[in-house]
Amino acid sequence: MIALVPVKPFGVAKRRLSDRFTPPQRRKLGMAIAAHTLSITADAGLEPRVVTGSDEVAAWADHLGVGVVEEPPGGGLDGAARAGVHSAAGSPWMVIHADLPALDVADLTALTDAGPGAIAPSHDGGTSAVTGISDDIEFSYGPGSFHRHLAAHPTLAVVCRPGLAYDLDDTADYDVIVTLGSGRWMGEIT
């Protein structure tokens, strides 16, 4: 299965953490979390690919030995997901957020064991990951995306796991994630 990981430019990532972390700290944190997500996908036996429109992020992924899919300009997360799925060319795929610092192999095993056609909600009603084979899925990320995705594709199997539920959006998420066993590492780099 191909794991498609959309990654924003590191200089603009994690702005909602600005009340606690400086721009260099947020940049370091964004890079570390994305590297963690890519490492876990590889450890789970998936083929990670970074989806990005940033030359810097593409060079970083290339340095890590990870394939890169070019994100079309102006498409946001929906466009990045569509570009990634299109690049999978009929192979089983997973679109997974880059900012899942508590993610572990067991989380991805549960998702892949559910088979192509699974979805993982985030704790705030978003979508952390979705799997499939075909490219006929219509992505609709943003607040409340889990329910929109599930309403549009009611046969998706729902997989709820802490490592998939806690994406890092703000300082409240940070405070929860560093208390989880699989997320404690994040407190050491900030």
Primary descriptors:
single chain; 190 residues; alpha/beta; Spore Coat Polysaccharide Biosynthesis Protein SpsA, Chain A; seven-stranded mixed beta sheet
Give a verbal description of the structure.
There is one protein chain. Strands 3-2-1-4-6-5-7 form a seven-stranded mixed beta sheet, sandwiched between helices. The N and C termini lie far apart (32 Å). The relative contact order is 0.17. It contains seven helices and seven strands. Helix content is 38%, strand content 16%. The chain is globular and about 40 Å long. α2 (55-64) links the parallel β2 (47-52) and β3 (67-70). The chain is an alpha/beta fold and 190 residues long. The protein has a single domain, classed as Spore Coat Polysaccharide Biosynthesis Protein SpsA, Chain A (Alpha-Beta Complex).
List the helices and strands and how they pair.
Elements: E1 2-6, H1 23-43, E2 47-52, H2 55-64, E3 67-70, H3 76-88, E4 93-96, H4 105-113, E5 118-121, E6 127-132, H5 145-152, E7 157-158, H6 162-165, H7 171-177
Parallel strand pairs: 1-2, 1-4, 2-3, 5-7
Antiparallel strand pairs: 4-6, 5-6
CATH architecture: Alpha-Beta Complex
Share of residues in helices? 25-40%
Total domain units: 1
Q: What average pLDDT do the residues reach?
A: 93
Which range does the strand content fall in?
15-25%
DSSP helical segment count: 7
In CATH, what is the class?
Alpha Beta
Q: Remind me, CATH topology?
A: Spore Coat Polysaccharide Biosynthesis Protein SpsA, Chain A
Class by helix and strand content?
alpha/beta
Calculate the terminal CA-CA distance, rounded to whole Å.
32 Å
Largest sheet: 7 strands, mixed
* Strand/helix succession: EHEHEHEHEEHEHH
Q: In the CATH hierarchy, what is the superfamily?
A: Spore Coat Polysaccharide Biosynthesis Protein SpsA, Chain A
**Going across the major beta sheet, what is the strand order?**
3-2-1-4-6-5-7
Using the alpha-carbon principal axes, give the shape: globular
The beta-strand count equals 7
- The stretches of 5 or more residues where confidence is low (pLDDT under 50) are none
Oligomer state of the chains in this structure: single chain
What is the gyration radius calculated from CA atoms? 15 Å
